Amino acid sequence: MDFLLSFQLSAPEIILSVAGLALLMVAAFAGNKSAKTVTYLAIAALVAASAVVIELFTNEALSLGADAWSGLYRMDAFSNFTKLLIYLATIGCLIVTPKFFDAKGEYRPEYPVLMIFGAVGMGIMVSAVDLMTLYIGLEMSSLSSYVLASYSRSDERSAEAGLKYFVLGALASGILLYGMSLVYGFTGSTSYLGIRAALADGMGTGALFGVVFVLAGLAFKIAAVPFHMWTPDVYEGAPTPVTAFFATAPKVAAVAILMRIALDPFGAQSTAWQQIIIFAALASIVVGALGAIGQENIKRLLAYSSINNVGFILIGLAVATEAGASAMLVYLAIYVFMALGSFVALLMLRDRDGNQLETFADISGLSSTRPMLALCILLLMFSLAGIPPLLGFWGKFVIFQAAVEADLILLATLGIAASVIGAFYYIKFIKVMYFDEPADVVVESNSPARWAVLSLATLVISPLGYLLTIWLGQLADRAASAMFFVI
After folding, report:
1. What is the number of other CB atoms lying within 10 angstroms of the CB of residue 266?
2. Torsion over CA of 271, 277, 281 and 287, rounded to 10 degrees?
3. Cα 434 from Cα 449, distance rounded (Å)
4. Numbers of helices and strands, H then E, in the chain
5. A biological process (GO) annotation for this entry (predicted)?
6. Is 408 strand, coil or helix?
7. Which residues are paired to 116 by β-bridges?
């Protein structure tokens, strides 16, 4: 094993791990007063890791990817693409967080350290090419998430969210681990290449059960129906900056590992799991749309919206082609900006006493009192609905195009028809903000950091975002081809 090459390929995780340990020492010795300093240093570490990822992505000598640590870890275009999304989402969440907890006097330096270690776990997940590496990365990310969900000690809802997330997450991890043990038992390998070779000539009943359990455990992580029950409660109960994090970075990582494990070790037997993914996709679209219709709490509505959008992403996986994988990555990149912008806008809904506002009644007539904020929310919601000319439309377009090209015309038709249901609750924002009597409870935000993140997200999903589509498509094609290189 070439240790020097292994260190080079896993440099982003090494940088973040060292930074996390160093910042943990700073937090221990400097106390709570170091919270903002630790946050800035955490952002700097994530920027450095992102720069290393870009260097690896553009390194011609590593254009085909390479294995590290005796085949347990792989650096390729797919892992680099998804890591960039994870790190950018984490940076965005860290930028907008301090002001939220400062109002309650609860901001502590452990918060950015947990985010750093969560990012390390997610980076390991998307680069894993062995079931053991996958599980280590998954648990590292999950343990950080459980603590973050219950971070607000003064809020009972936060403690409840953390407990629910922990119990259900432990159940999902048990299901996933059991599935891994079955796969190992019937293939004799934990390596993705070894599993693929063992399943090349067919899949027995035992191995099929293992695959189903693995997919069920990962479906929980991406909040796909029927493993979505935790999402509305955790999204509502967790502090809003934490919810923004859950909706972006861990979502990217979970979708990425689902893609890699379905298309790499189980790729030779795609017909065995294709029907499962089709069901999960359509069920997530319908349940997410119908569940959101009656919601008055905006965080719960956005939780159902995330379930709905996961359904569209899974259509690309059901296609099981390189075009479908590329479409998934394009949609995922666009979704990160839409979700991050939506939760940042929600963070800016505060009353004169500094309390967080979360209901439709609070944004009644918002266009009259805070027109710019209302406009940003309008654009973000319409983009999530996939209404042209906003960039969210392009994400859905490439997904359905991939399905049609793979002759899954019925799936594409059902997906398009079901997406119409979702438009109803997004339009509700327009009705409440632009046509209802002003509640005038939202005060003007004086946070340049939040306005900067919200403005960037809104700009990306606006019609100007179409200028990025060719470039984004090329990156997604390259990332998708990395997974099919072994075929």
Report:
1. 24
2. 130
3. 26
4. 22, 2
5. ATP synthesis coupled electron transport
6. coil
7. none
d(CA 349, CA 410): 41
pTM > 0.85: yes or no: yes
Measured between alpha carbons, how far is 427 from 386 in angstroms, rounded to an integer? Answer: 12
The answer to whether 195 and 181 have CB atoms below 8 angstroms apart is no
pLDDT tens sequence across 145-187: 999 988 887 778 888 888 888 888 888 899 999 999 999 999 8
DSSP H/E element including 266: none
Q: Where does residue 456 rank: exposed (0-12), middle (13-18), buried (19+ CB within 10 A)?
A: middle
Question: d(Cα 20, Cα 41) in Å, to the nearest integer?
Answer: 10
pLDDT digits (tens, 9 = 90+) for 269-291: 888 888 899 999 999 999 988 88
Are 392 and 382 in contact by the 8 Å Cβ rule? The answer is yes
**Which DSSP category does 33 fall into?**
G
Helix (H, G, I), strand (E, B), or coil: what is residue 67?
Answer: strand
Chain centroid to CA 322: 21
Interatomic CA distance for residues 120 and 216, integer angstroms: 24
Greatest CA separation found in the chain? 68
CB 203 within 8 A of CB 228: no
Q: How far apart are CA 296 and CA 413, in angstroms?
A: 30
Cβ atoms of 53 and 83 within 8 Å: the answer is yes
Is the CB of residue 465 less than 8 Å from the CB of residue 71?
no
Measure the CA–CA gap between 362 and 107, rounded to whole angstroms: 26
Distance CA 280, CA 312 (A): 10
